[in-house]
Specification:
The complex is a heterodimer. By secondary structure, chain A is mainly alpha-helical. Chain A has helices spanning about 5-10, 10-25, 30-50, 60-85, 90-110, 115-140, 145-160, 190-195, 210-225, 230-240, 240-245, 250-275, 285-300, 310-330, 335-355; strands at about 195-200, 205-210. A two-stranded antiparallel ribbon of chain A has the order 1-2. In chain A, strand 1 and strand 2 form a beta hairpin. Chain B folds into 2 domains: about 5-245, Rossmann fold (3-Layer(aba) Sandwich); about 260-495, 3-Layer(aba) Sandwich (Rossmann fold). A 6-stranded mixed β-sheet of chain B has the order 6-7-8-3-9-10, with helices on both faces. Chain B has a 6-stranded mixed β-sheet with strand order 16-19-20-13-21-22, sandwiched between helices. Chain B has a 4-stranded antiparallel β-sheet with strand order 2-1-4-5, with helices on one face. Classes of the chains: A mainly alpha, B alpha/beta. Chains A and B meet through helix 1, helix 2, helix 10 and helix 11 of A and strand 2, helix 11, helix 12 and strand 18 of B.
Chain lengths: ~350, ~500
């Protein structure tokens, strides 16, 4: 076959690459918008807020924003894992909330040392993730329904620990027959996970520990999903589970691991949250579900990945954080903030899906 | 008596001439077959006729009067309709047969607020009677079989008084009996003045059904035959640009007696009954039978993705236990599955990522994927399977069927197989790509045992050293392909002949 013939023979393929190339030249703008849309918006929003408010552009404020989004980012990365294997975990908010109550309760009511409380909480998270996967993999309940059931179950469990009370120093022990005061304390070491700083000096407040935890989690997740063969396997299971199975992958095992990771990260987020607020607030984890899902889906569009990805999720979470922080500084009332969050999500997703379709 | 005529159709994409001045006529009551390898311009022609492209050169006329087709509704208006390979895309699964047939009527305001059910049901019954479709019109479309759906789509086209129907690879997922039924319908509709543009890769069918045959290659019309003039080997030659004798690679004269795989008394309740056979190293064992005869079940048992109720499998004389595909892969048994899109590919990923997937372990260091190494590996395999263009970064979704299939085969070539199983490996791919696959099969057979399963009898006879026929889950015949002709094999598969003489 002559090379000229070959060129013609591949009509379908080359016409495709050529037409995409053509479209690229024709609309560099929409391509850029698609690829860098979120990043550009993020920068634009930051510049806007910096100009509007004095405090926005400082290092301390930047770290404050990162600290504010750290818990969300950790939870959202869990959601990302479930979405990567083409699942969906809506129990993350409840699992986050469970950790917020469980760890302080273990320390205050039952006087466990902080590390035991952390270990028990993480184990509880892992077990919930495992149960999720059993429901989904063994009993073949659709992901959304299985984890929705788990959401209610865990939420109820969370309340049962303290019979509906918040956990704080000097609370009455809900399990004591004579309503005695619980005399445990939340360990100061534990509190550091939410409130501490590292690298502090006279001129620098330091980097908040939640930010360090967030960066560590994000880095590990990024390396795992993007650089190792396990990441390939996770994405393969999400992309086409039957093809993955026929390529020798234990698909059920992969999905199980994804749900365990999801619950473990939700628990980690909850632990940091508990340390940050210094007490065990009831239902404190709830908002993290929706924000986590939003961050994950914001991330879909970043760099034209068209799939859930770590970098995108982190950026998505920061984006949500910057918006909220900026809006608060501009004294936009809290009830308008959700409206704006919704609008931005719709516009950004709409834009990226619309341009992909073309 | 209407004639649809296209004159000098030409369509270019930047840098490529997809269709280069093709003339073509479809007269009522005729079946005009359009054949050609992938990239020959068939789909471009179909897309022009159905209004998919707003701009192209040349003109289209009906009975000498020029018509303008630049959007799908134009084609619709002139009664041109296409029945795609994937019929599901044009049907609504959770509506009934009647509702699907009469959806426009139901949606239109003439219906009034309430659906007049009996009237619709009766009308629907009349319509499906014309295509001999024998189903309850109140049944949900989701519950129909594939051939039933196909007839339903054809029926709907006729009910809209479409007179030019384009059938795009209509038989690619049909069994022999179903194909026969489809042909009967086509014959009877022809008598009612409907004309068909029949696009297929299966030459034996075209010989049977077509009144006229146009062959495209590289965007040009390279041959035209009437039914009487058709000579299959000339047709293949025209399509490929090489003599047809070269489609199937030469078979070896001698085959080793070294048993590679042996199966004894395999039983899967309701599917397979007492299956025993062997395949030697260096041998291509053909496996044929109707859809539902148990071929795919058997292959999936050999690959560990389905568990038998009883029976033993031996690899190189040692009994093996296959609990999961990973066990089979570990042992050196690989499967090229039936449906490449849903079982063989990660459609959104690149060629390199697809090809490297099964053996990614060997392309990683402490679990980190070595991208450079992966790329070199992919390029090597791409060359082996003759992928065009040889680009590891292409997204698989954008490749033609033949090239996608090469990727599915290619991903198993990284490690020497002991047994490699092909299930309907050439379904829906063009003759050029088929030839490449056959060559690969032969090359693989030099150091391995190959099981080649297909419902296309010609290809099974052409590629195999020995053939097994399955019927109703049993092996009913075993023979050497040069000892038998296709008519006989067909009769064995359908049960017209009990078993091999």
């Amino acid at each position: 076959m002559s090379s000229a013939q070959q060129v013609k023979n591949i009509e379908q393929e080359s016409s495709h690459t050529l037409s995409t190339r053509n479209a690229k030249y024709a609309s560099v703008f929409s391509e850029l918008l698609l690829k860098y849309g979120l990043i550009i918006t993020l920068i634009a929003v930051s510049v806007f807020f910096s100009l509007k408010t004095e405090a926005f552009a400082s290092i301390d404020n930047l770290l404050d924003i990162l600290r504010a989004v750290s818990i969300l980012t950790i939870v959202a990365l869990g959601v990302t894992f479930s979405v990567v294997v083409n699942g969906f975990d809506v129990s993350v908010g409840a699992v986050t909330g469970l950790a917020v109550i469980l760890a302080p309760a273990l320390m205050v009511i039952w006087k466990f040392p902080w590390y035991v409380a952390v270990l028990i909480s993480l184990s509880a998270g892992a077990i919930i993730g495992f149960l999720n996967s059993i429901l989904i993999v063994r009993f073949r309940i659709p992901d959304l329904l299985a984890t929705l059931g788990m959401l209610y179950l865990v939420q109820g469990l969370q309340m049962s620990i303290t019979k509906g009370d918040a956990v704080y120093k000097g609370m009455t022990n809900p399990w004591s027959p004579d309503r005695a005061i619980a005399d445990g304390v939340i360990s100061p070491i534990f509190l550091k996970f939410g409130q501490g700083f590292v690298l502090s000096s006279e001129s620098f407040r330091g980097i908040p520990i939640p930010v360090i935890i967030m960066l560590a989690v994000a880095l590990i997740a990024f390396v795992f999903l993007e650089l190792t063969r396990y990441g390939r396997i996770f994405y393969a299971v999400g992309g086409n589970s039957e093809a993955a199975r026929l390529a020798g992958i234990d698909v059920n095992l992969v999905r199980t691991i994804a749900y365990i990771i999801s619950a473990l990260l939700a628990t980690t987020g909850g632990l940091v949250l508990a340390a940050r607020i210094g007490s065990g607030a009831v239902k404190a984890g709830d908002p993290y579900l929706l924000d986590g899902v939003a961050a994950t889906y914001f991330g879909f569009a970043v760099l034209n990945a068209r799939r859930a990805n770590v970098f995108g999720t982190v950026l998505g979470a920061i984006f949500v954080g910057v918006m909220l922080n900026g809006l608060t500084m501009m004294n936009i009332p809290w009830y308008i903030q959700d409206v704006i969050k919704g609008l931005v999500l719709i516009v950004s997703l709409g834009l990226s899906y619309y341009t992909t379709r073309r | 008596m209407a004639t649809l005529r296209a004159v000098g159709l030409r369509k270019t994409f930047p840098g490529v001439v997809a269709l280069d001045g093709v003339d073509f006529a479809l007269s009522s009551g005729k079946v005009h077959a359009l054949i050609g390898a992938n990239g020959a311009g068939k789909s471009t022609l179909i897309k022009i006729l159905t209004g998919y492209y707003p701009d192209y050169e040349g003109r289209i006329e009906i009975d000498g009067k020029e018509i303008s087709i630049h959007k799908p509704s134009d084609a619709f208006k002139y009664g041109i309709e296409v029945v795609h390979q994937e019929v599901d895309t044009t049907l609504i699964p959770y509506l009934t047969v009647a509702e699907n047939l009469l959806i426009e009527k139901i949606a239109s305001s003439s219906m009034g607020l309430f659906v007049r059910k009996n009237e619709l049901l009766n009308e629907a019954r009349e319509i499906i009677k014309r295509v001999n479709l024998n189903v309850d019109v109140r049944k949900q479309v989701a519950d129909l079989t594939l051939p039933e759906k196909q007839l339903l789509v054809i029926a709907r086209a006729i009910s809209r008084s479409s007179s030019f129907i384009i059938l795009d690879e209509p038989t690619s997922s049909l069994s022999l009996i179903e194909t026969r039924q489809l042909f009967d319908i086509i014959q009877s509709l022809k008598k009612q003045g409907v004309s068909f543009l029949y696009v297929s890769h299966r030459l034996s069918e075209i010989q049977e059904i077509a009144d006229e045959i146009t062959i495209l290659r590289n965007g040009q019309k390279v041959a035209y035959f009437t039914r009487q003039e058709l000579d299959l080997s000339k047709a293949v030659e025209a399509m490929l640009g090489v003599p047809s004798t070269e489609v199937f690679p030469e078979k070896p004269k001698e085959i080793s007696q070294q048993r590679m795989l042996e199966v004894r008394n395999l039983i899967k309740k309701g599917r397979l009954w007492d299956i025993s056979f062997y395949v030697n190293k260096g041998e291509v064992l053909g496996l044929t039978g109707l859809t539902g005869a148990g071929k795919t079940d058997l292959l999936h048992i050999l690959f560990g993705s389905m568990k038998p109720d009883s029976g033993e499998i031996f690899l190189e004389g040692r009994k093996i236990s296959l609990q999961h595909p990973k066990d089979a892969i570990q042992a050196g048994i690989y499967l090229v599955p039936e449906d490449r899109r849903s079982q063989g590919l990660f459609i959104e990923n690149t060629v390199a990522q697809n090809i490297s997937f099964p053996f990614i372990k060997y392309l990683s260091k402490v679990s980190f994927v070595l991208l450079e190494k992966e790329k070199r590996y992919a390029l090597e395999l791409i060359e082996k399977v003759r992928l065009v263009p040889p680009n590891p970064d292409m997204i698989v979704k954008n490749l033609s069927g033949g090239n996608q299939q090469k990727v599915v085969v290619g991903k198993w070539l990284g490690k020497q197989p002991k047994v490699i199983i092909f299930d309907e490996a050439t379904q829906g791919i063009d003759v050029g790509a088929k030839r490449d696959i056959y060559t690969l099969v032969r090359n693989l057979a030099q150091n391995a045992a190959v099981i080649f399963s297909s419902s296309d009898i010609d290809e099974v006879l052409g590629i195999s050293d020995r053939v097994l026929v399955l019927r109703d889950g049993r092996i009913v015949a075993e023979f050497k392909p040069d000892k038998i002709d296709r008519q006989m094999v067909m009769q064995i598969t359908t049960g017209a002949i009990e078993s091999c003489p």
